[in-house]
Amino acid sequence: MTTVTTRRPGARRGLATPWLMLFPAIVLFVLFFAAPIVYTLVLSFQKSQVKGLGLGSGGRSTVFAGLENYVSALTDADFLASVARVGVYGLILIPTMLGLALLFALLLDSKRTRAKGFSRVTIFLPYAVPAVISSLLWGFLFLPSVSPFFDIANRFGITLPDLLSGDAVIVAIANIALWGGVGFNMVVMYTSLKAIPTDIYEAAKLDGASEVQVALRIKIPIIMPSLIMTAIFSIIATLQVFAEPVTLKPLSNSISSTFTPLMTVYRDAFTRNDVYSASATSIIIAVAIFALSFLFLRVVQRRAFGGEN
What we know:
Layout: H1 9-44, E1 46-50, E2 60-64, H2 68-74, H3 77-109, H4 116-124, H5 131-142, H6 148-155, H7 169-194, H8 198-206, H9 211-222, H10 224-239, H11 243-248, H12 261-271, H13 275-305
Antiparallel strand pairs: 1-2
Helix pairs in contact: 1-13, 2-13, 3-7, 3-10, 4-7, 5-7, 10-13, 12-13
Domain ABC transmembrane type-1: 83-296
Keywords: Cell membrane, Membrane, Transmembrane, Transmembrane helix, Transport
Membrane topology: Multi-pass membrane protein
């Protein structure tokens, strides 16, 4: 004897409800995330071919370029130099920023610290300042002709270094990013610290552990996943640095139009009007960000998340 089960209309509507709720997010994801990536990928394999003087409606045509744009980008001396500068910039910024953020988070989590609310707001507040505004603010503080720091130093016969000239401009850019990024990372770490059960601290104190030992042997290992997450975010932000050098460029002769990889993309797309080369360079940067983040996560995965792979 066979039994035939029929699905009720109400059950069908119940199955469709999650998809209907997800539909607006899926549409926005496709239109503003997936579609631009696919379009950029398509453009990266094309180039503009000029016929004759390039005038008239048939003077320029779009043809398939294969890997030509990628080879051109990877052999471009300006692009490779910008990658090297960003590497130095990251070596200066990331350890310093995460170290200060961890130090501030541990200090705020200490019972001996006073005015914790005011301190949290003060440390986090620079993160709320847009990058362009903070770059202008620090740019004028670094500029010898208008900076009050240079005036005060000159009165005491002290010579301050010009951070907007020569290779020192990387330190100036890193300082701006440091000022704005410490607060965000501190909040992430501090939130993780507050989630640790107080029983662990009490047991450690009964065993005679000092506050420094508690921080080094209990707090930091427990919040290691948060440290890894902030490190990955910092790596991504480092490779995408753009607003700070662009804003400082009018104030310094040491910043070229290809100072960072994203500035190289901007030059190709909007100065040279070569969106095809700019698309290829963008894909290279995106792949590099993914590869570095994935590699970093794989290296520290076992210690951070207890995984074996």
